Amino acid sequence: MKDKMLCRRMFLKSSAFFAATVLGAKSALAKFVEGGGAPEGKLSLYNVNCKERLTVTYRNSLGEYCDEAIQALNWIFRCHLTNETTKMDLRVLEYLNRLDNSLGGDNEIHIISGYRSPEYNARLRSRSKGVAKDSLHMKGMAIDLAIPSVGLDRIRRTATALAAGGVGYYPQSGFVHIDSGQFRTW
After folding, report:
1. Which residues pair with 147 in a beta bridge?
2. Which one of 20, 96, 112, 137 has the fewest beta carbons within 10 angstroms of its own beta carbon?
3. pLDDT tens digit at each of 186 positions of the chain
4. Residue 85 CB contacts under 8 Å (≥ 6 apart), including other chains
5. Three-class DSSP category at 156
6. Residues ≥6 apart with Cβ < 8 Å to 150
7. Vertex 96 angle, CA 175 and 68, to 5°
8. CB under 8 Å to 95, separation ≥6 — which residues?
9. What is the Cα–Cα distance from 177 to 163, expressed in whole angstroms?
């Protein structure tokens, strides 16, 4: 897969929006853009278990998601044991994007664990007391990550300051857990 993914649908939507704006159409979206819009949703990922990389823009500055990019994200976050995918919760992807941007942006984020199949979660549970029976990983709502250029403690502090969901700190295992559940830390 190419490092950069061009999303035709995003281009067409943006072109349609531009045409509507030029023709004088006003919408809530146009007012949002006039107010400065939002940064694009970009992620650069490396799945340490599958040895795969993906750099993708999954949301444009208008707030529109690219279906093909989301599918690519679902694939890279797949369960490495079974190759099963799920629809990753957009809130955890946005949390990850905000975390990356708060750490300077354009970091290569190493995925330790994204989606876990029930089979894989059960296997991990049999080996460790720290794995939840009803883990948010099985719902596509959690990511265990590391960023080689950023210390784990800094990642933890930054994720905690964002307060966008759960934050778990596992320095002995070499990762920080984030999820789109209620804000809590451990």
Report:
1. 150
2. 20
3. 444 444 444 434 443 333 333 333 333 333 334 445 678 999 999 999 999 999 999 999 999 999 999 999 999 999 999 999 999 999 999 999 999 999 999 999 999 999 999 999 999 988 988 888 889 999 999 999 999 999 999 999 999 999 999 999 999 999 999 999 999 999
4. 74, 75, 77, 78, 79, 115
5. helix
6. 103, 107
7. 120
8. 159, 162, 164, 165, 178, 180
9. 13
> What is the Cα–Cα distance from 119 to 122, expressed in whole angstroms?
5
Amino acid at 181: G
DSSP SS3 for 154: helix
State both tokens at 54: 């993906």
| Rg, the chain, Cα only | 18
> How, if at all, do strands 41-47 and 108-113 pair?
parallel
Measured between alpha carbons, how far is 64 from 79 in angstroms, rounded to an integer? 27
Identify residue 110 by its one-letter amino acid code: H
